[in-house]
Structure formats: structure tokens, C-alpha cells
Amino acid sequence: MKRHVIFLILLTAITAAGCAKPPEAKAPVVPVLTAIAEKKTVPIEVKAIGNVEPYLTVTVLSQVDGTLKKVHFKEGEDVKKGQMLFTIDPAPFIESVRQYEATLLQDVKQLEFYVAQAARYTYLVEKGAVDKNTAEQNQTQAATQAEKVKNDKAQLANAKIKLQYCYISATIEGRTGAYQVDEGANIKTNDTKLIVLNQIMPIYVTFSVPEKDLPLIKKYSEKEKLKVSAYPPGFATDAREGVLTFIDNAVNTQTGMIKLKASFPNKDKYLWPGQFLNVAMTLAMEPDAIVVPVNAVQISQQGQYVFIVKEDMTVETRLVKVAREVGDELAIEKGVSAGETVVTDGQLKLKPGAKVMVKKPGDATDNATAVKGTQEKK
Question: Residue 307 burial by CB count (10 A; 0-12/13-18/19+): exposed, middle or buried?
């Protein structure tokens, strides 16, 4: 009987022990990086990809046939307006000028004779010494010779112009490209390309934006010149500043884009023709905009959202509407208030209601370390 009672007691104890619930494991504390949503004045910008174009481009051609005698510059060199670039052998043109000068001198002498002869016969007609027809013939000879002299002068002037064309100078201030011909080459009139000059101070950056941005661009550009910044990819801190100077007169119906052009002083020659750049055009400044770091905003099937850290160090998800990107930050139109704390790193391990601890940037704290620290405190 006694053994039976003991057995029942043991059985009851074992059953009770088997039915007891094990202690629940507490959810780990997730280490995260955070930032405070701030209220700032931010620019309203239009961004695009731009292409650098010369302010002016001049292709230098010869206006006379001949042999290229001398090149007066080094390729890739900056040249001034009026600086000598090429000399085409002037010898044939100098000789031509001399020939026309000699012909003109001879014909002028002949003209002087015919004029004096016509005057003499006019006098004799008045005296009745000769008939009128003879006088008129002399006058006609003088008039014909005068036309010949006039033609000689035109021929001489043309020869002198051609001689001047042998000396080719820069019509703009700019930078030379690669040599197109070498000394000794035969040059053809308006056919042989000698060099291409690009004026790069100032310089243009062309870019296209969607037509939906055109009303705002026109609205703000009527008040003042819009500022445009441009920089090569990866060099945002080294941007150059210019102003909008051109809006195309039509939208491209195939692409729905409108072409714009900005002018940059480019005194340091940082921008180079043909270069592709990131372009940002500032339309206006928006005060009291709520901004958060770009990394704070995540994307789900429901849309863009952020994790908000509450006072009890748990998180909640909040759908947001992003107005625009401003550098490394996003302007939030709806969903976040100034002063709220948003998670910027560690979102993949979070879910609504999760407990978090804020780590310092660069801290290697992981979940295991965070849990261990929490248990030691207890």
C-alpha cells in the first residue's frame, strides 16, 4: 500500500513536470543605425545627363589652291584670335600681283593718251578743223580704255586678296585639334580641312528633360536665370556652376523630351567638349522640407516606407511619399515628421514591433553580442 502511494506521487510529479511550459525565448535586440528626420531648406531640382559642346566650332579650310609651306602652331595648343596658323606658298600669288600691277600701269598710261587725244579732237571740232565723227571715235577709245583700267584694278585687287589668303589666321580664340594636313601637302580650295578650332571658354552643356518639367522651368526662368551645376560621374564635390541660356523651341515628339543648354565660364578648362556629365538645374528653394537619408527609405509591394524608432526602442513601419532626391537625402512629402528617428541601416532584420539598439557608425555589434549584453544586464 505504501509503495502504491509513493508510485502515485511520483507519477503525478512526472506528469506535472511534463506539462509545464518552457520559458519563452525573448526576441533578439537588433542593432541598427538611425538618423533624425530634419526640417531644412532644400532646392527644387531637375536632374539629367548632359553633354559638353564647344561655345564655337570653326573648321579651317583654304580659300586658294597651293602647297602648305608652314604650320605655325602645335596641335592641341590654345591660340588667340588673329594668330597665324598656316602659310600656303605665296610665290605664285606674289607673281600674279606683280603681273596685274604691270598691266594696270601700262593701261593707265594708254588711258592718259586716249583722254588727251579725245580732248584735243573735241577742241578741233569746236574750231571746225575736223569732223565730229573723228572726235567721237577718240572719245570712244578713251571710254573703252577707262573700262579696261577699271577691270585691271579689279583683277589686281582679286590677286592681292588671294595673296592674303595664303596667310591663314585663327578667326576665334580656341583650342586646336589634331593636324589634318602636314607641311608640303597640296591644298584644294574649300576642300582640304586644315584644322578644327573649338572655343571652350565659355562652354555649353546641353541636356534634355521630360516635357512635364517644362512648365516649371519656364515659370522660374522668367523670374531669373536658373543655376545649373554639372560634374563628371563620381565627382559631385567638384561640380561647376553655370546658368541656363537656351530652351529649344519644340519638344521632341518621339521622345517627349525638351532640349536645354547651359553656359559655363570654364576658365579652368575643367569641362571638355564631348564629355558626358551629371546635370542638376535648380528651379527654386523649398523651405521647411522634411528630409531623411536616402538609406532610410525602403521599397515594398505597398510602396516606399521607413522604420520609425519609438520611445520604447521598438520600431514601426510607416508608408511615405518621397518628393525628390537632394544629394544624399530624400525630401519626404508625407509620412514622417521632423524630429522622428528613422532606421538607416539594419532594416533587413527588422519587423514591426522589433526591439532595437542604436549602434555607432562603424561599430561591429551583431545580434549575438546584443543579446548577450541584454542577458548580462539581467
Answer: buried
Q: At 293, which CATH number?
A: 2.40.420.20
Q: Are 362 and 19 in contact (CB under 8 A)?
A: no
- What domain range includes position 34? 30-44+288-377
* Prediction pTM value: 0.69
pLDDT above 70 (res 161): yes
Would 20 be classed as within a structural domain?
no
The dihedral formed by the CA atoms of 261, 265, 270 and 276, expressed in degrees to the nearest 10: 0
87: in domain: yes
Buried/exposed 232-255: b ≥16 CB within 10 Å, e otherwise: beeeeeebbebebeeeeeeeeeee
pLDDT per residue as tens digits for the range 167-223: 999 999 999 999 999 999 999 999 989 999 999 999 999 999 999 999 999 999 998
Cα angle 209, 212, 214; round to 5: 65
